Amino acid sequence: MLEELKKLCEEARSTIDAAVGRDALEQLQTKYLGRKGKLRDAMAKLPGLSDDMKRQAGRMANEVKKEIEGLLKEKLKASGAKKTTTKAHFDFTLPGRQRTLGRIHPIIRTQIELCDIFTRLGFDIVRGPEIELGYYNFDALNVPKDHPSRDAFDTLYLDGDRLLRSHTSPVQIRAMEKRKPPLRIIAPGRVYRRDTADASHYPTFHQIEGLVVGEDVTFADLKAVLTLAMKELLGESVRTRFRPSFFPFTEPSAEVDVSCRFCDAKGCNSCGQKGWIELLGSGMVHPNVFKAVGYDSEKYTGFAFGMGVDRIAMGRYGIHDVRLFFENDLRFLNQF
Amino acid sequence: MKLSYRWLKEYCDFDLSVKDLCERFTVAGLEVEGYSDVGDDVMIEIEVTADRPDQLSHLGVAREIAAMVGSELRVPEIQLTESDKPASDFASIDILDPALCPRYTARIITDVKVAPSPKWLQDHIETVGLRSVNNVVDITNFVLMECGQPLHAFDYDKLNENRIIVRLASKGEKMMMIDQTDKELNDDTLVIADAKRPVAVAGVMGGLDSEVSDSATTILLESAYFEPKCVRRGSRLLALHTDASYRFERGVDPEIVEWASRRCAAMIAEIAGGTVAAGMIDVNHMEPWNRQVSLRVPRIKRVLGTEVPADNIKRMMSSIGFEIISSADGMIEMKVPSFREDVATEIDVIAEVARLYGYDNISDQSNLTVQIGTVPEWEQVKNLARSVVTSLGYTEVTCSSLVSVEQASKPTYWAQDGILALSNPLNPNEAAMRRMLLPSLLEVKSLNQDKGTARTEVFEIANVYTRPELKPLPDEKTCLAIIGEDTFYDLKGTVEILLDRLGLAGKWELEPAQVPLLDPNICAKITLEGETLGYMGQIDKDEIADRDLRSAPFGCELDFDLIEKKACLTREFVELPKFPAVDRDLAVVVDEAVVWLDIQSCVEKTAGELLESVSFFDLYRGKQIGPGKKSLAFSLRFRSTDRTLRNEEVDEVVEQVVAELGTRFNATLRK
């Protein structure tokens, strides 16, 4: 019996060794270890043996079984042969199935980002009407009638005294009428100018207005806040430049330029060789404006500023034509 | 305004290259547009702000340079020889409207030889962009560019009765201008006239007939002060904008009228020859200039945030022409020069101090208190809506608020009244305010279709403008509009998710509707707690045809103000169920006219408390169930809050439901 088992094991070893392919190995598994396999046949003879013989044979049979199993397992692993033809080939280079990702419009995105910067600096967001009265758009802002400074604001008029606001500054007046100082507000929104649409102008556009009024608010605060905001928006390495200008509602007034991030204000193609890009208008609120809203200009001082969101968005994303924002070509919008 | 670099050097010494000069200009508030070589001179173009008309001349700019570099301003000396004959012998001046023309002066120069200008004069004129005409005219332009006072030379012999009358024109009076345009005047246009007819529009432009041409031998030289608003009206009405009108509109220096007249007369005598009559004819109703301002030195720190010592202030202000009257106890009194009409109060002085001190030198350290800014709820709701709709695959667009009158007049959901039309539109396509958003989105679809993009799923949150008769201001309503492709139910699904996310689940309903722009067969009205929220449906075929669209998208437009009002952004946790659910699927065959909502309500009412939810999942029409019928398949989920349900319990309820559906809707179970 023991001889038989030994011979069986040797035979299994060599046939397994010579076998090629998974199918062949599976067949051998059945042949030796299956229910009608050779090992079983051999074991069937066990009952006819003495007790002592039964024990030895049984032990050996188990060892043979383990060895054959082991050999088969190893060979199967080593062969790594795949089943032929019917199974599909997994091609991970096929494109993924995409769900659509909608986008927030780049101007709105810029506006939200700017508002976020200012709320972090303590500004409350407020809003006001787009259709305004001449009083709020001009008179309360110290822009007298029949004055050349009204030209700069080429206004679109509706009927009588009603017009489309040419800047977000009227919201300052409305906010000051409703609240007592101190205040810190920003007002984003649409504004309108009588401009022929071209690469840098569009009759509808977006601005954000800011206003800070208090008992100890100075030009130094204006410089600090706007510089901080611009660095936050455009990067720490950006520099600001404040140069004297004129707005009827602020005195002193300043235009705020930021350094071109490509050439650090040395001048290059991106900034039209100027080195500096004008982004904000600002200044200390004129006492006449405080008078119009009933604030005591002896006790309170304040600064105001305004920026064109569309312009800032163009600068950030490298867009050269403002009309793209209003055309809404999806190939453009989906880039952001 | 165009400046000549070499000309500036005639009035003050400075050792700055053009580039450095331009940088100094920028720091001082004179915006430089650019500069270019003209022969061996350089022309520098600056933009002067509306409050600084004193910078509209070379002397004015030279004064700024002198203050910058610490040198002296050299005002030219005038060598004028006058004859014995007084100017008043030659002509008379009548000002009929002294409010509009407070001062008019005239000098007479006889025996003048009108000829081409000497080269140096031509060069000066041409460098700053003017055309050389003849010596007399060029000299008047030279003096204008030198000191900012516009002058006009008349051919004396063309002035009827040797009279100058400053009056308003009569309606319909005509005049041929120097630029060869024929103008019809108005009764609020101020003109310079002789005894018979107008010879100039005051402060704007002279007439062709009385201009100084080659044949002129006697010159009447006008130097006057015209009221800014009046010149502005004249300029606008006649659409004539000249170097003269530009300066008068912004206000010229009242004290320079006389100097300019003498300067010009002296130059004419020198260059064109001739005899200058004695003195000027001067009708003067102006009060002599006398303005003072005081500055409280501590206010400098209050407003600017930086202290500037009183001595610095006095030095800086003197350098630009302010005479210090007194300085004591922190108070500085000064005289405002006549060419600085813009400095009227203390704040204007503070602004000048800031400018001259240098904005860069002012501190940029802030002491503002630390506080948190508020993002109001209406903004939070808007941003949440944006975030939801973009997550669902729609891209945000921004469209112009302005549309054509025709488009704005089309019927809208939001109002039944008139439109808001611009009184001065730039073009007919942007002449009125839009009263609906969906048409703008359809334009976006149209554009994208043209560019080769077939699927356009976009949204906009923006205002529509209605109720023009409302006082003081019309209504601005924020709306949300979405267009989508595929099916009505895709768009409906988006709206369902959006309203749910904004805390409005269960608060809104749909009703049938017939509204503009939407297909009458595929259209519904949405109400929120009884109020109209908006409409959704498939865009109408006519609209699709008009716009040449290749597919008919689905659109909805919602009243976002209402959403903002009712939205609830807070969320509260609901306990997860403790016991398992039992699910059953049913399909019932009903007549076409039966709507899902009725089936759903019936199921919910009949099934009672044990029913946790009923969800529709399939609609089938076909041969199996026959014509005029449809099959609605839905799943029922049963769950109890206090025990595990047994199948028998559920079966019983399902039987009741099926029975009730049969009774009410003649529904049969589909196997």
Quick summary:
The complex is a heterodimer of chains A (336) and B (671). Chain A has 336 residues and is of the alpha+beta class.
Report on this model:
The complex is a heterodimer of chains A (336) and B (671). Chain A has twelve helices and ten strands. By secondary structure, chain A is of the alpha+beta class. Chain A has a seven-stranded mixed beta sheet, sandwiched between helices. In chain A, helix 2 runs antiparallel to helix 4 and helix 7 crosses helix 9. The longest helix of chain A has 29 residues. The mean pLDDT of chain A is 89. Chain B has 671 residues and is of the alpha+beta class. Chain B has five domains: 68 residues, Phenylalanyl-tRNA Synthetase, Chain B, domain 1 (2-Layer Sandwich), CATH 3.30.56.10; 203 residues, Phenylalanyl-trna Synthetase, Chain B, domain 3 (Phenylalanyl-tRNA Synthetase, Chain B, domain 3), CATH 3.50.40; 69 residues, Phenylalanyl-tRNA Synthetase, Chain B, domain 1 (2-Layer Sandwich); 190 residues, Bira Bifunctional Protein, Domain 2 (BirA Bifunctional Protein, domain 2, 2-Layer Sandwich); 88 residues, Ferrodoxin-fold anticodon-binding domain (Alpha-Beta Plaits). Chain B contains 19 helices and 32 strands. In chain B, a hairpin with a 4-residue loop joins strand 11 and strand 12. In chain B, helix 5 packs antiparallel against helix 8, helix 6 runs antiparallel to helix 7 and helix 18 packs across helix 19. Chain B starts with a strand and ends with a strand. At the A-B interface, helix 5, strand 1, strand 2, strand 3 and strand 5 of A face helix 2, helix 6, helix 9, helix 11 and helix 12 of B.
